[in-house]
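To illustrate the input format used throughout this study, we show a single complete record. The first block contains the structure-token representation of the backbone; no residue identities are included at this stage. The design step must infer an amino acid for every position from geometry alone.
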């Protein structure tokens, strides 16, 4: 995410490294590089030019403190301007209403249906009771797709194949939600391959009929400026309340994330970061600006950990570690918890300084599968008592997991090293736990090579 943009910004700030003071010449060169970086990231020329101009104006208007180098000042100013460009602060969903109604809009292929389900899962995790409504009557199997997704995440889906009018289906879904005690109804509308009058008229009629608490526009971040132009076309007609940017885990240049707020005046509220139902994050402009500038995002990393590592499980695990009873079943459980947190490379990039270190490093998203295969090839006795793993048992495990004897031995050594490390850190609280997670991610990456 934003790898190329981060590299270009780093190049821009090199102009000021080693400089003793800020001058119009060196700041002007840096501003030009920043403008080029934004244009290359598919930000419109007008937005990029205005952004670079604000940075130059701010920098020349400030006195540099003795202990603050010009390069450091420019990074700070750029971080503040990036944050402002992307909306300044996180914007929560408006969930007023009984039930609260959320209408999902966007082009076909943007991930609208998938992200309707992701949003429902996220809201379920926060104690709400959502109902998904299938109102796409045009795309083949669209209704079936939403039912499959609903079943996967444990959320009911409303559909009516006898009704052909999406507005009538949406109204029936809201009535069902109100009568059955659902506090949120998420309406999945139809998309088209391009903006057309029929599509815009239909979504306009749905919004007008339902008067939703929230209308969200879902757009593929990898389409760059096209995403921004489409967002503007939609907003001119239905005045949506927020944006969900999908495929932010892919090779996105970042133009959409940086431009949409500036062009439409509407904030990005969520970003899709993967295919799993959990891969939806609240959008925090300040944290995203820090990630773009290579500062990491420790707050988001800790929040992800807190979502997937519950306190009760942590206490039980710590008790086992203190009694030296940590076994391969516990190890496997921790690996699976980390996998739920999302893309491994994205997680590591949230650690300050890791973004540059990971440049060009290929970390397989399935890095932990080798570990899982080996552990699942063990018998219950072998998992509970690793000391019984002799040569013949290891050979059987290697054959059963499709790995080599070397892989099995490597995992056993990593397990023993981690067991010792966890024993030492069991009294260190959260810091020790984060250290443990980092080591486990590293172990997964080594196994994936």
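Output of the design step:
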């Amino acid at each position: 995410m934003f790898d190329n943009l981060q590299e270009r910004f780093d190049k821009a700030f090199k102009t000021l490294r080693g400089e003793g003071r800020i001058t119009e010449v060196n700041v002007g060169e840096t501003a030009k590089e920043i403008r080029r970086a934004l244009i290359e990231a598919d930000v419109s020329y007008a937005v990029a030019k205005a952004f670079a101009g604000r940075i130059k104006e701010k920098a020349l208007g400030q006195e540099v403190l003795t202990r603050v180098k010009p390069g450091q000042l420019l990074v700070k100013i750029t971080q503040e301007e990036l944050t402002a460009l992307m909306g300044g602060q996180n914007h929560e969903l408006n969930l007023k209403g009984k039930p609260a109604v959320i209408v999902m809009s966007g082009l076909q292929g943007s991930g609208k249906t998938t992200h309707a389900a992701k949003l429902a899962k996220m809201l379920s995790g926060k104690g709400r009771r959502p109902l998904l409504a299938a109102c796409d009557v045009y795309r083949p199997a669209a209704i079936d797709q939403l039912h499959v997704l609903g079943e996967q995440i444990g959320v009911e889906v409303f559909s009516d194949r006898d009704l052909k009018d999406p507005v009538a289906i949406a109204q029936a879904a809201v009535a069902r939600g109100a009568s059955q005690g659902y506090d949120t109804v998420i309406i999945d509308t139809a998309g088209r391959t391009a903006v057309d009058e029929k599509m815009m008229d239909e979504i306009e009629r749905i919004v007008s009929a339902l008067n939703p608490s929230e209308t969200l526009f879902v757009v593929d971040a990898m389409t760059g400026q096209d995403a921004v132009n489409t967002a503007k076309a939609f907003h001119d007609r239905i005045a949506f309340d927020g944006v969900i940017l999908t495929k932010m885990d892919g090779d996105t240049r970042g133009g959409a994330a940086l431009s949409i707020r500036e062009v439409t005046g509407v904030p990005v509220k969520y970003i899709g970061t993967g295919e799993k139902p959990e891969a939806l994050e609240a959008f925090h402009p300040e944290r995203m600006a820090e990630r773009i500038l290579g500062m990491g995002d420790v707050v988001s990393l800790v929040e992800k950990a807190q979502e997937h590592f519950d306190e009760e499980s942590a206490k039980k695990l710590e008790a086992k570690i203190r009694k030296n009873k940590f076994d391969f079943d516990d190890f496997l459980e921790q690996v699976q918890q980390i996998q739920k947190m999302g893309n491994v490379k994205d997680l590591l990039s949230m650690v300050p300084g890791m973004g540059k270190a990971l440049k060009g490093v290929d970390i397989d998203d399935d890095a932990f599968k080798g570990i899982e295969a080996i552990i699942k090839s063990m018998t219950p006795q072998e998992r509970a008592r690793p000391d019984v793993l002799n040569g013949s048992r290891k050979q059987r495990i290697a054959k059963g997991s499709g790995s080599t004897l070397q892989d099995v031995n490597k995992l056993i050594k990593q397990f023993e090293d981690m067991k010792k490390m966890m024993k030492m850190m069991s009294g260190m609280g959260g810091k020790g736990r984060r250290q443990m997670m980092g080591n486990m991610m590293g172990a997964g990456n080594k196994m994936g090579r």
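Structural context for interpreting the output: The chain has three domains: 3-85, 100-293, 300-448. The radius of gyration is 25 Å.
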